[in-house]
Description:
There is one protein chain. By secondary structure, the chain is of the alpha/beta class. The chain is about 55% helix and about 20% strand. It has a 4-stranded mixed beta sheet with strand order 1-2-3-4. It is elongated and about 70 Å long.
Amino acid sequence: MGKYKKTSGKHVIIELKRAGRELNEYELLEQVDKYRNALRKLIQATGKNEPIEVVCIVGKPLKQWANPEQEEESRRLLSAKNIRVVLYQELIEDAYHSYEAFLEKHKEASRVFDLIQAIGAGIG
C-alpha cells in the first residue's frame, strides 16, 4: 500500500508493508522503483526536476539485516536511492516520545499560564 505527499519541497512516497511480511532489499527496491519512476515522469512532464524520497515502513527487519554490518551496508545501498526503511516499532516509539515531549511542554506552558492568571487576579 503506497501513499504520496509533497512536503518541504520534495516528493515523498510512503510504502506500508504488512507487519508480518519478511522482505529483502531487492524486493523493496523493485517495487518502489516502479512508484518512483512513475512519479518522476509526472514531475518531469511539468518541466521540473524535484527530489523524491521513499519511506518504507515494515514490520520486520529486512532479510539482509542479519547483523549490524549487513544492516549498515543495506541502509547505505537504499539511502543512495533516497529510500529509508523504518520499522513499525521504531515509528511507534518515535511517536510516543514525541507525544511525551509535547505533553511535558504543554504541562509547563499550563503552569506558566496559571501563574500569569494568578498574578493577574491578584492585581485586579
